[in-house]
Amino acid sequence: MRLQFVGCGDAFGSGGRLNTCFHVAGDRINFLIDCGASSLPALKRLGISRDDIDLILITHFHGDHFAGLPFLLLDAQFSRRTRPLVIAGPEGIEQKLPQLMEALFEHSSKTKPKFDLSVLTLKPEETRSFGAVNVTPYPVVHGESGGPFLGYRIEAEGRVIAYSADTEWTETLIPLAREADLFIAEAYYYDKVVKNHLSLTTLQTHLAEIKPKRLVLTHMSDDMLGRLDTLQHTTAHDGMIVEL
Questions:
Q1: At 87, which helix (H) or strand (E)?
Q2: 69-78 vs 93-104: helix crossing angle, rounded to 10
Q3: Cis peptide before 137 (omega within 30 of 0)
Q4: pTM of the predicted structure, to 2 decimals
Q5: 22 contacts 163 by C-beta, under 8 angstroms
Q6: Which of 48, 49, 188, 198 sees the fewest Cβ atoms within 10 Å?
Q7: pLDDT in tens, 96-136
Q8: Domains, the chain
Q9: How confident is the model at residue 144 (pLDDT cuts 50, 70, 90)?
């Protein structure tokens, strides 16, 4: 199983990085975690087959995590996709997705796709199975608009991937990521503490309790990107592959 960072940037493209989108593939699994606005061209650039993707997990409704879906769905329609696709995310996704489709491509939400499309709500701390992928969402803290906000603990093919999504420190990150094979954590700032985002120094104070087997930092601002040569932790970059 491997995870590829299709995009690992923040909402403002700091460092020229693309919006959040991770691709996970293995013997029996093929899915995306988040689908930011730049995801479709990034997937094409990396040569990742969109038709093979069975599942897309959305953490919240900000454009750098969610706004790539209309492009992906229209591309699937025009390329004559036949494989079923499941899109799952926080409460409200059944309404938010058609609204986004209409905002970006008028009348597109009213066109029935030629493939079986399911849009499902995930409930916090309730595990849901999608074939060989087991997903447990945890509530995280990222403001008042664009939510609800979820991080994910994902079990597949004997491995655990944890993703904090965008959040300030919250105690739910401990069970979300405890002893995960891979913990992908936001580190928006180095030591500046702000609402709704996580700093590396804050995260580091909790790593002894979380005990991830591997940590990769993502969603970094210019403040973090300017310190990459000094950091002791692995940092994501667009196209990076992690073997699990």
A1: strand 85-89
A2: 70
A3: no
A4: 0.97
A5: yes
A6: 49
A7: 999 999 999 999 999 889 999 999 999 999 999 999 999 99
A8: 2-232 (3.60.15.10)
A9: confident
